[in-house]
Specification:
4 helices, 3 strands
Length: 100
């Protein structure tokens, strides 16, 4: 799973299957929905990058234009009930460093 978090107030959290989908998601959900007037002289370059599907370029230029910072975590593990069921959690907490 890939995760992106904006440093806006409130922050926006975007989740995607992998880093490639995450780049497209950021470009479509955040970059493409920005008012043109907020992008200044970067507008033409950002628009061209979006139309050429150069997602990373569009996002980078958008961040520069808007001052928005996005923290991205391209390879996060998703824990499932199977991986961390109640029995395992109960055992692991008992051998955790806090109890040593």
């Amino acid at each position: 799973m890939a995760v992106a978090v904006t440093r806006n107030e409130p922050p926006e959290v975007l989740l995607a299957e992998d880093e490639h989908v995450l780049g497209r998601l950021i470009a479509l959900r955040l970059v493409a929905h920005t008012r043109p007037g907020a992008l200044g002289h970067q507008l033409e370059g950002i628009g061209a990058a979006l139309l050429d599907e150069r997602w990373a370029d569009a996002v980078t230029h958008w961040m520069e234009a808007t001052g928005t910072v996005i923290d991205a975590y391209p390879d996060e593990e998703v824990w499932t009930e199977e991986q961390l069921d109640q029995d395992r959690a109960s055992f692991e907490v008992r051998v955790a460093p806090i109890f040593k």
